[in-house]
From TrEMBL:
<dbReference type="InterPro" id="IPR007434">
    <property type="entry name" value="FemAB-like"/>
</dbReference>
<dbReference type="InterPro" id="IPR016181">
    <property type="entry name" value="Acyl_CoA_acyltransferase"/>
</dbReference>
<feature type="compositionally biased region" description="Basic and acidic residues">
    <location>
        <begin position="400"/>
        <end position="409"/>
    </location>
</feature>
<dbReference type="Pfam" id="PF04339">
    <property type="entry name" value="FemAB_like"/>
</dbReference>
<protein>
    <submittedName>
        <fullName>GNAT family N-acetyltransferase</fullName>
    </submittedName>
</protein>
<feature type="region of interest" description="Disordered">
    <location>
        <begin position="400"/>
        <end position="419"/>
    </location>
</feature>
Length: 419
C-alpha cells in the first residue's frame, strides 16, 4: 500500500474536541510520506528530551540513505497535528509490510489472522526502524497540553488504521509516561531488556568491585584474553572516521549479519552519514596493524549510551564482550553517562553487570474478536514475563543482591565498593 499525505480538517477537529483539547483554531491531522515534509526544528522541539533515535536528523538519515524501502516492508506515514501551519504534535509512523526490524514480535498474531482469512499486512507501526530502544513516540512537548495532544495522536493513528481497512496499529518501546495516551482498546505488552546503570563509579575497577567474585573473575579473564591477542583497541567518535574507515566498519557489520543468515538493512551510506551527526555515533574498534578487524557501533544522546551493531573478521575469545560491553561501560563512566543500553535480548548480559528492565508497547487490533483473543493470550504471556523478570533479578551478579532481595529491594550495586 502506498502511503498518501492527507489533510482532513473536519475529522481531525472533531477527534481533538472529543479529547477535550481547547480548539479556538482549526487543528488538522496530516500524514506524510517522508520525514523531510515535516519541519525539523519544530519536530525536535516536540521531543521533550534528547533521545537521538527520534531526532529529525536520525530519521531523515535512515530515509535518504536507502534503509527505509517498501520492498523491505517499510513506508513512512508520519503523522502531524497542526494549528494552522504550525506543527504542535507528531509521531514517527510507518506502513509495515512485515514484522521485521521491530523487536516486538507479533509473527504469531499475523499467522493466526491470516489463517482465519484476514490480511495482517500492511499494518501501522509507531516506532523507530531497526531500533529496540525505549524513547518518546508521541511527540507533544512538555506543557499543559502534552497529555491531550498525545491522546489525539493515538486516536489519529487508530482512526487511520480503521479508515484504511488495516488490521492493526502498534506503538513499540514507549516511555512509561506515554502509556496513559492509549485507552483500554489498546492491548498492553511488556518484555525484558538488560541495562547497565552508572552508580557514580570512578572507573571500571570501581564497577567491577561491586560484582560477586565469580562474575568479577570471569570479566577479568575475558579482558585478559583480548589484551593477550595483540589487537589494538581504540574508542573513536563517528565524526573522526574517514570515509574508508566507515566503509570498513559497514563491511564488518554486513558480513557478520550475512554469516548469521540475517538481513543487513542498514546501508553503507547510512553508516557514513552517521559521521555527520556530531558525537551521536561512537565506536569501539579493534585493529590488527592498520586494519580494522572488529567493531562495535554505539549511539549516544540524553546521557545514555546505546549499543547497536557488532562486526568482526577475526575470532578472538572475549573480543565481542570487550568491544560491545566493557568498552561501553568504560566510556559511560568516563563521560558520566547515567545508563548504557547494549541492545535487545541476551541473558549473557546479566553476568556482565546488566540488570533486567521492562519495556512497554501498546497494540490496537481493529477486529474486536481478534483483539479479544490476543488479549487473552497476552494475559498468559504477561504472567510468564513477570516470572522471567523475577527469576533474573534473583540471579543478579552484584555482590549484595541476596541481601537486597531479602529486604524486598531490586538487586543492584548500592554503592561504590572499590578502594
Amino acid at each position: 500500500m502506498q502511503p498518501r499525505p492527507r489533510e482532513s480538517g473536519s475529522e481531525s477537529e472533531s477527534r481533538i474536541r472529543d479529547k477535550g483539547i481547547h480548539n479556538p483554531l482549526m487543528l488538522t491531522t496530516r500524514f506524510h510520506d517522508a520525514i523531510a515534509e515535516l519541519p525539523a526544528a519544530a519536530w525536535d522541539a516536540l521531543r521533550g528530551e534528547d533521545n537521538p533515535f527520534v531526532s529529525h536528523a536520525f530519521l531523515a538519515t535512515l530515509e535518504r540513505s536507502g534503509c527505509i524501502r517498501a520492498d523491505w516492508g517499510w513506508q513512512p506515514h508520519h503523522v502531524g497535528i497542526y494549528e494552522r501551519d504550525r506543527l504542535i504534535a507528531a509521531a514517527p509512523l510507518y506502513f509495515k509490510g512485515n514484522s521485521h526490524g521491530e523487536f516486538v514480535f507479533d509473527f504469531g498474531w499475523a499467522r493466526a489472522w491470516q489463517q482465519a482469512g484476514g490480511e495482517y499486512y500492511p499494518k501501522l507501526l509507531n516506532g523507530v526502524p531497526y531500533s529496540p530502544v525505549t524513547g518518546p513516540r508521541l511527540l507533544a512537548g512538555r506543557d499543559g497540553q502534552t497529555a491531550l495532544l498525545q491522546r489525539a495522536l493515538a486516536e489519529a493513528m487508530r482512526g487511520e488504521a480503521e479508515e484504511l481497512g488495516l488490521s492493526s496499529v502498534h506503538a513499540n518501546f514507549l516511555e512509561a509516561a506515554e502509556a496513559e495516551a492509549f485507552d483500554e482498546d489498546w492491548l498492553a505488552r511488556s518484555d525484558v531488556q538488560f541495562h547497565w546503570h552508572n552508580h557514580g563509579y570512578r572507573h571500571f575497577p570501581a564497577f567491577l568491585a561491586t560484582l560477586n567474585h565469580k562474575k568479577r573473575k570471569n570479566i577479568l579473564r575475558e579482558r585478559e584474553q583480548v589484551a593477550a591477542s595483540g589487537l589494538a583497541i581504540e574508542w573513536r567518535g563517528g565524526n573522526s572516521l574517514s570515509l574508508l574507515e566507515w566503509r570498513r566498519v559497514h563491511a564488518l557489520y554486513e558480513a557478520t549479519f550475512d554469516a548469521k543468515g540475517n538481513h543487513a538493512a542498514l546501508t553503507a551510506a547510512f553508516f557514513s552519514h552517521l559521521g555527520d551527526l556530531g558525537q551521536t555515533a561512537q565506536l569501539a574498534l579493534a585493529r590488527d596493524g592498520d586494519t580494522i578487524v572488529a567493531m562495535a557501533l554505539f549511539i549516544q544522546g540524553g546521557g545514555v549510551l546505546y549499543g547497536r551493531y557488532w562486526g568482526a573478521s577475526v575470532d578472538v575469545p572475549g573480543l565481542h564482550f570487550e568491544l560491545c560491553y566493557y568498552r561501553g561501560i568504560d566510556y559511560a563512566i568516563a563521560q558520566g553517562l547515567k545508563r548504557f543500553e547494549p541492545g535487545a535480548q541476551g541473558e549473557h548480559k546479566l553476568a556482565r553487570g546488566f540488570l533486567p528492565v521492562r519495556t512497554h508497547s501498546r497494540h490496537f487490533l481493529v477486529n474486536p474478536g481478534f483483539r479479544a483473543a490476543v488479549a487473552d493470550a497476552l494475559t498468559h504471556e504477561a504472567e510468564a514475563v513477570d516470572g522471567y523478570a523475577a527469576e533474573l533479578l534473583a540471579h543478579s551478579p552484584y555482590a549484595r543482591s541476596r541481601e537486597a532481595a531479602r529486604e524486598g529491594n531490586e538487586p543492584g550495586p548500592p554503592r561504590d565498593l572499590s578502594p
